[in-house]
């Protein structure tokens, strides 16, 4: 029984104090449904005063709009049941009406006096946050269960799995659109789309800079924008392009490399920000997509390798096996620079057996390896697959002047070795490595089979092999291409960071330089020294461009004079300067200082460095033959320098700089010396 407010009973006062101070709401009804007591939390919750509530009927709560009709009827029936003695206690969860609804846990108890029900006491607790947390957990559980069922199903393709997961994400986030993208450089393609959108269509491509995903790619992994216009501004290029007001996306990594993004969006903004659970779930979906795509790619490779295995079994010679293998590496693993060597036990050497056209273009003549020839022989001798993601960091690489940056060496037992490489730094993931290992095993088995067949069919016959020697000029080409290639790589990195069109133009210019160099150097290699295409060019501008290819912050360029202009073939003069700068850096050190100036005693220019002087006997060898016997490679670059000077009809001399370094002088007003 509730204590009389006017009672002087100390126990009643103590109970009243407790009821007044508890955080839960306390409300008391008499058996006629009239409120006889409410504490302050009840008054605060209803938005009325305690005085206005005490003495009011239960119907007052129904008429206040605090509950909708169905919820009020549940409360009314529970109180009525207690008043009639049907139950001693009732507990129910009811929800208030309105946009900011709350979930209440109401516990009702019948208070008796001499077995007569005199009042109903209600304890009201706001459990909104708890109920929402439980609902969120249940939603998470259901979504994860769906994700597990999709993953475990063996009746769908990988593409169908990805689409089902997009649908799961849309349901979980209550967003209409889900899409998977792939990204290649600055181009983003929509691989698959869930939801009826006129803008988001499968197969559509867009510049990454105009997409929401550019933020995702630049982030640590996830971007969530509940209200794009409010959070990034209505002038955002992606908002202007697509008009989506809500976006959340995460990166999709395949074998550690960026493949694309996994995203969800809506035309309208979201009322609340994405919760930590929602963000974590989207990240999980992105990781799942990455693993799925990785598995899909590996399965596709396995199917491709299965077809290759059939071709290898039908091969009739070791050379055919090698060609099938190098073609498979180029096509299936996207490693076009691939070659195969066969072990010649009589000569104790690895002789070239097959290569791709791309390999010939990059390396030139495929070399023969003998014991001790760097990394290749080590892999063969140890019968161990070895990965070199950065050849420039390997001092024992066979030819450091080629354009190759990364390689994988795959031994073929005692039959030979397969080498696949790339002209850019490449990270070889587990899928790549295991695919190459499997290809190597198939090639080795095929070579064993061919050898057995040849032994049976052609017993006693000497197998004749002819190796045509290709023009041995690959090192020269690679040396000269390193300058514009380094420039192109450097400008491309800056362009990716700044997205400035001018840097992309410089990349294109470097590639044009490389194209012209390749043509010219191949002509020289064949002995077809074509005439120069001379024009009036700025010497200082070419000096700056050639120096930019060096990309070494420790090195210093000094321009001693106003270099003015000169009549020269622009591409070949740039080649000449680049070789001199690179040679100076390689043979003096990273802190080299290179000076370029005009000759004081004639029409021409000089290039000098502050390193050790050029030996007199070497000077004469360069001047007479265009090359030296330096094991460090000086002669390769200087052979091009002498050839370019000769093509222009310039006098070329090597002297000692005032500070003791090497000085190269070019006189444009004298006969070729």
From TrEMBL:
GO terms for molecular function: phosphorelay sensor kinase activity. Keywords: Kinase, Transferase, Two-component regulatory system. Residues 11-58 form the PAS domain. It is an enzyme of class 2 (transferase). It catalyses: ATP + protein L-histidine = ADP + protein N-phospho-L-histidine. Its EC number is 2.7.13.3. Residues 476-672 form the Histidine kinase domain. Gene3D superfamilies: 1.10.287.130, 3.30.450.40, Histidine kinase-like ATPase, C-terminal domain, PAS domain. InterPro entries: GAF (IPR003018), GAF-like_dom_sf (IPR029016), HATPase_C_sf (IPR036890), HATPase_dom (IPR003594), His_kinase_dom (IPR005467), HisK_dim/P_dom (IPR003661), HisK_dim/P_sf (IPR036097), PAS (IPR000014). This is histidine kinase. It comes from Haloarcula salinisoli. The lineage of its organism: Archaea, Methanobacteriati, Methanobacteriota, Stenosarchaea group, Halobacteria.
């Amino acid at each position: 029984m509730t204590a009389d407010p006017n009672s002087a009973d100390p126990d009643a006062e103590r109970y009243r104090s407790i009821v007044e101070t508890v955080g839960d709401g306390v409300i008391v009804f008499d058996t006629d449904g009239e409120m006889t007591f409410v504490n302050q939390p009840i008054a605060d919750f209803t938005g009325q005063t305690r005085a206005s509530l005490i003495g009011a009927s239960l119907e007052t709560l129904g008429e206040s709009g605090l509950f909708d009709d169905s919820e009020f009827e549940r409360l009314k029936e529970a109180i009525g049941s207690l008043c009639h003695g049907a139950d001693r206690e009732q507990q129910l969860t009811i929800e208030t009406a309105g946009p900011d609804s709350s979930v209440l846990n109401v516990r009702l108890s019948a208070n008796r006096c001499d077995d007569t029900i005199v009042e109903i006491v209600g304890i009201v607790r706001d459990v909104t946050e708890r109920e929402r947390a439980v609902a969120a957990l249940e939603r998470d559980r259901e979504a994860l269960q769906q994700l597990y069922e999709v993953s475990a199903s063996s009746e769908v393709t990988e593409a169908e799995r990805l689409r089902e997961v997009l649908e799961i994400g849309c349901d979980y986030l209550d967003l209409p659109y889900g899409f998977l993208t792939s990204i290649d450089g600055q181009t983003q393609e929509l691989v698959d789309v869930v939801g009826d959108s006129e803008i988001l269509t499968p197969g559509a491509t867009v510049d990454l800079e105009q997409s929401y995903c550019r933020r995702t790619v630049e982030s640590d992994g996830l971007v969530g924008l509940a209200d794009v216009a409010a959070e990034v501004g209505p002038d955002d290029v992606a908002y202007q392009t697509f008009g989506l007001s809500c976006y959340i996306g995460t990166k999709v990594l395949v074998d550690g490399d960026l493949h694309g993004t996994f995203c969800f969006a809506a035309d309208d903004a979201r009322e609340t920000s994405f919760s930590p659970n929602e963000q974590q779930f989207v990240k999980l979906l992105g990781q799942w997509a990455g693993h799925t795509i990785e598995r899909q790619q590996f399965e596709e490779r396995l199917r491709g390798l299965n077809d290759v295995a059939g071709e290898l079994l039908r091969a009739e010679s070791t050379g055919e096996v090698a060609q099938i293998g190098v073609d498979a590496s180029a096509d299936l693993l996207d490693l076009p620079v691939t070659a195969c060597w066969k072990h010649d036990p009589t000569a104790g050497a690895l002789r070239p057996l097959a290569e791709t056209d791309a390999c010939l273009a990059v390396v030139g003549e495929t070399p023969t390896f003998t014991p001790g020839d760097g990394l290749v022989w080590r892999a063969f001798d140890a019968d161990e697959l070895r990965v070199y993601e950065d050849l420039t960091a390997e001092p024992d690489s066979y030819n450091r002047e080629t354009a190759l940056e990364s390689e994988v060496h795959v031994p073929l037992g005692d039959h030979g070795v397969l080498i696949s490489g790339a002209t850019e730094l490449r990270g070889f993931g587990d899928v790549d490595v295991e695919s190459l290992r499997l290809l190597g095993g198939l090639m080795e088995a095929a070579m064993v089979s061919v050898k057995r067949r040849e032994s049976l069919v052609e017993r006693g016959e000497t197998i004749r092999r002819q190796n045509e020697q290709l023009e041995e000029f690959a090192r020269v080409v690679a040396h000269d291409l390193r300058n514009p290639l380094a420039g192109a790589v450097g400008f491309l990195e800056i362009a990716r960071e700044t997205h400035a069109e001018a840097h992309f133009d410089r990349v294109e210019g470097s590639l044009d330089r490389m194209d012209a160099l390749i043509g010219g150097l191949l002509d020289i290699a064949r002995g077809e020294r074509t005439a120069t295409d001379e024009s009036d060019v700025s010497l200082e501008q070419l000096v700056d461009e050639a120096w930019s290819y060096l990309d070494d912050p420790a090195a210093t360029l000094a321009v001693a004079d106003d270099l003015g202009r000169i009549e020269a073939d622009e591409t070949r003069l740039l080649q000449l300067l680049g070789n001199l700068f690179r040679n100076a850096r390689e043979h003096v050190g990273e802190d080299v200082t290179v000076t370029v100036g005009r000759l004081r005693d004639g029409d021409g220019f000089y290039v000098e460095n502050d390193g050790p002087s050029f030996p007199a006997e070497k000077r004469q060898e360069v001047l007479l033959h265009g090359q030296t016997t330096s094991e460090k490679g000086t002669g390769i670059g200087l052979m091009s320098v002498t050839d370019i000077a000769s093509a222009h009809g310039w006098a070329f001399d090597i002297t000692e700089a005032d500070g003791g370094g090497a000085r190269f002088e070019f006189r444009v007003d004298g006969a070729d010396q």
